[in-house]
Write a structure and sequence with these properties.
Structural class of chain A: alpha/beta
Shape of chain B: globular
Oligomer: heterodimer
Organism (chain A): Litoreibacter albidus
Structural class of chain B: mainly alpha
Signal peptide (chain A): 1-25
Number of strands of chain B: 2
Strand order of the largest sheet of chain B: 1-2
Radius of gyration of chain B: 22 Å
Number of strands of chain A: 10
Family (chain A): Belongs to the UPF0065 (bug) family.
Pfam families (chain A): TctC
CATH architecture of the largest domain in chain A: 3-Layer(aba) Sandwich
CATH superfamily of the largest domain in chain A: Bordetella uptake gene, domain 1
Strand content of chain A: 15-25%
Order of helices and strands of chain B: HHHHHHHEEHHHHHHHHHHHHHH
CATH class of the largest domain in chain A: Alpha Beta
Number of domains of chain B: 1
Protein name (chain A): Putative tricarboxylic transport membrane protein
Distance between the termini of chain A: 65 Å
Distance between the termini of chain B: 56 Å
CATH topology of the largest domain in chain A: D-Maltodextrin-Binding Protein, domain 2
Largest sheet of chain A: 10 strands, mixed
Strand content of chain B: under 5%
Chain lengths: 322, 501
């Protein structure tokens, strides 16, 4: 008897733990495992919304990894399309995959994009002892011998990290982009490891992925892909000032199901704006190497639509998709 | 004595009644999570992360709780491996090979105590290693590029041949099935989905936990149904639980060697605890040779994988803390926790936030001692739970498996796939094909392929690139030796045996 009682207690302890957060009203789906950018978006935005009383109960975070966000997208489109209490973390990766038709035929107009409140600037990084001092040096070297420079990045071939150096090279007048070597590894830190180890010559990724390596002296950031230099990292030159007009940031934001009411949509947009304006979010951005980037509501939907068609056109041009 | 003063700082942070209480809770929960099939350390830790936020714990307390759960799960995984022949999580896979036969011989208590001690030795040495060597060991990750990783995985596969107890061809077949399953999903070198049939659920490939629970737990249920609920292979005899001092003493070198092997495997990003326990087991098996009787329930076969996987768990913290590169699935989740606590791991963490690092190390040491105390005297409790009749136990295990797997991605597709793996496991066992190589194929196949494809991209398809560094060449030699040596050694080893007989 005690055995069974004990077993029941064990089971209920485990089940109970997973259920404790299920009572809250709003839910944020992070379409990845804990630890990535999407998980960060849900947890930080959810926490700040509750802390500044934009929502009256803690936001429950659900991790729904799979197919680079595709599973969660499919779930929202087909099963939760009128759930007004649901928000989903999104980023440039979401739009890149939609643009490259990597969500099994689903399109960007099947959900509504609420807004972005922060962006992770794209960076090009080399090892400290690399001969490349500027972006120009690197582009010239690739022009001379395309096989001499290999890039490592955290996304798969054709993903956003891969597109960044290709955009720069295109801007620099190099067109034979299929010759450019790129390996997709497990995340930005791994890509840095491969670059510092000398297996690849450069790393392409986001600012947040390199912050912790900067003070160590193992790497040099030769370009940041923003309009202006990033506050706090003022000694890192932009690609633009080096003559390559490329801006590539990984925005962090949210989408909601398509069939919710306009009032509900505006309500979420308002809450997101409140988070964007809060000192807590400002602090979270500084701590994580994010640059300010706020586009909320109708503006943002237009921005996303433009982005999807741009990336689609670029991917075709670059030969990443047919 | 920098380390001692640092450690004192760490204990100062970690040693308060409240954090001790958290460590005990974490260890207990972790052991249960590890023991339940389908709930491994990584999803166990992931499920508990929201709790730390709800409780409003500060960074140190949250870390103590999570690392206790992590180490606890590494300890707990062995319990269902030994008692049910169902691995509680993927690193505990190798423990089934000798642990379950040992339990069937009526030595379940011995196996549990011995594996508990081995876990302690592995984890303790790894924590010491982490403490002394972390900053310098971080550089090891820089030496491993695609060619070296490929050779490392190849080494793991080459030793597979010696794993099947009676029929090598069947083991090879099983490994091929695993490798085949590993090719499902988005190919990271081209970004295109393979063998997914357009199904989004298959884009990330097949999760090992789904495969493990299906092949072991669900297949067991099918066998149980076939026998009309009578005479299941599940259920072990309970003897008097005492500390098997002789076995512990006899396996002392095994534990030390396995801790070393596991720690090194853990340090390499991506390889993780499963490779650690596998390598430790295979090393000991080849050292013991044919006479060692590995696979029949020998103490060394229980001690090796447990010391190995717990040491790997500690080793995996090295690249996570020093480079921000997680060495295993669970450390990826811990990394997430650190980042949400606004601590960014990286090369400067040891100097910038010593209280976090040393608090963590101190809490690991505390967790370890709590776990040893908890696991040795409490073994009886765990044995008794699993002593309940199979007709009560199996449905319970099945239910927990379903809940555990559903918690992975919250999709019913994983459940269907798990049942499919159950059917596969049933067929394989009917054909007497071992299921462990299938899992290893799924576990390592994808990484091995990625490493090869990356190497080929970097070298423009030049195969000689695979032999381009001393480390790679060394691993290749070890792999070839591991594959060929057993064939020759068998002859040499058998002769003296015949003489003495």
């Amino acid at each position: 008897m005690t055995n069974r009682l004990f077993k029941a207690l064990m089971t209920s302890a485990v089940l109970g733990l997973s259920a404790t957060t299920a009572i809250s009203a709003a839910e944020c789906i992070a379409p990845a495992n804990p630890g990535g950018g999407w998980d960060f978006t849900c947890r930080q935005i959810g926490k700040i919304m509750y802390d500044i009383k934009a929502v009256d109960k803690p936001v429950q975070v659900t991790n729904m990894p799979g197919a680079g966000g595709g599973l969660a997208y499919n779930h929202v489109v087909s099963e939760r399309s009128d759930d007004g209490d649901l928000i989903v973390a999104a980023s440039s990766a979401t739009t890149t995959r939609l643009a490259q038709n990597a969500y099994a035929g689903m399109t960007a107009d099947q959900v509504r994009f609420v807004g972005a409140i922060g962006a992770d600037p794209g960076v090009i990084v080399v090892a400290a002892d690399s001969p490349f001092q500027t972006l120009g040096d690197m582009v010239e070297a690739i022009k001379a011998d395309p096989g001499s420079v290999a890039f490592a990045g955290g996304s798969a071939v054709g993903g956003f990290d891969h597109l960044k150096p290709l955009m720069i090279l295109k801007e620099g007048g190099f067109t034979d982009i299929t010759k450019v070597k790129y390996i997709g590894v497990d995340g930005g830190a791994d890509a840095i490891t491969q670059t510092v180890g000398g297996f690849t010559q450069a790393m392409t990724g986001d600012m947040s992925e390199v912050v912790s390596f900067l003070s160590n002296g193992d790497i040099r950031v030769i370009a940041v892909l923003t309009e202006e230099r990033v506050p706090g990292f003022d000694d890192i030159p932009t690609a633009k000032e080096q003559g390559f007009d490329v801006v590539a940031v990984n925005w962090r934001g949210l989408y909601v199901p398509k069939d919710i009411s306009d009032e509900k949509f505006d309500e979420w947009a308002g809450k997101l704006q409140q988070v964007a304006d809060s000192p807590e979010w400002a602090q979270a951005m500084t701590d994580n190497g994010l640059a300010p980037f706020t586009k909320v509501g109708g503006d943002f939907q237009a921005y996303v639509d433009g982005l999807v068609s741009d990336i689609n056109a670029m991917s075709k041009e670059l030969g990443v998709i047919q | 004595m920098d380390i001692l003063s640092n450690l004192a700082l760490g204990f100062g942070v970690a040693l308060s009644p409240f954090t001790l209480f958290l460590a005990v809770c974490g260890c207990f929960l972790g052991t249960i999570i590890g023991a339940l099939p389908g709930l491994g350390p990584s999803n166990g830790v992931a499920i508990l992360i929201p709790i730390t936020f709800t409780l409003g714990l500060d960074a140190t307390s949250a870390l103590v709780l999570m690392t206790s759960v992590y180490y606890g799960a590494m300890y707990g995984g062995r319990i269902s491996s030994i008692l049910l022949n169902i691995p509680g999580d993927e690193p505990a896979l190798m423990t089934t090979l000798d642990g379950y036969p040992m339990a069937k011989q009526g030595r379940a208590g011995d196996a549990l105590v011995l594996s508990g001690v081995a876990s302690f030795v592995g984890a303790f040495l790894a924590t010491i290693g982490l403490m002394l060597l972390a900053p310098s060991l971080a550089r090891v990750a820089f030496l491993f590029g695609p060619a070296e990783y490929f050779a490392l995985y190849l080494l793991a596969f080459c030793t597979l041949g010696g794993m099947a107890s009676n029929n090598q061809a069947k083991a090879a077949l099983a490994a091929c099935i695993g490798l085949g399953i590993a090719t499902i999903g988005v190919d990271s070198s081209s970004g295109l989905p393979r063998l997914t049939g357009g199904n989004l659920h298959l884009y990330d490939g097949v999760d090992f936990l789904v495969a493990i629970v299906g092949l072991f737990a669900i297949a067991e249920v099918f066998f149980f149904i076939e026998s009309h609920g009578k005479g299941s292979s599940i259920g072990v005899k309970l003897d008097k639980v005492r500390v098997p001092w002789a076995d512990i003493w006899e396996t002392k070198w095994t534990m030390l060697r396995s801790s070393g092997v596991g720690f090194v495997a853990g340090i390499l990003p991506g390889a993780g605890a499963s490779l650690g326990s596998f390598m430790a087991y295979m090393t000991e098996k080849s050292i013991a040779g044919e006479k060692g009787g590995f696979g029949t329930g020998v103490p060394k076969g229980v001690a090796a994988p447990e010391a190995g996987n717990n040491a790997a768990a500690g080793g995996a913290l090295v690249p996570m803390l020093t480079l921000g590169v997680p060495g295993s699935g669970t450390t990826a989740v811990l990394l997430a926790l650190l980042m949400t606590l606004n601590i960014t791991p990286g090369p400067t963490l040891f100097t910038d936030r010593p209280e976090v690092v040393w608090g963590l190390i101190a809490s690991l040491l505390i967790a370890n001692i709590v776990l040893l105390l908890m696991n040795v005297p409490m073994v009886k409790v765990f044995v008794k739970i699993l002593m309940v009749p199979a007709w009560i136990l199996l449905p319970g295990v099945t239910m927990i498996s379903f809940v555990g797997i559903y918690s992975l991605s919250g999709s019913y597709f994983d459940l269907l796939m798990m049942v499919g793996f159950g059917a596969l496991g049933y067929i394989l066992r009917k054909l007497d094909i071992p299921t462990v190589p299938v899992i290893l194929g799924i576990l390592l196949g994808g990484n091995m392929e990625d490493a090869l494809r990356r190497a080929m991209t970097l070298s423009d398809g030049d195969a000689m690139y695979l032999f381009s560094s001393p480390i790679a060449i060394g691993l290749w030699i070890a792999a070839i030796a591991g594959f060929v040596a057993p064939m020759f050694l068998r002859n040499i080893l058998k002769k003296p045996q015949a003489v003495t007989d």
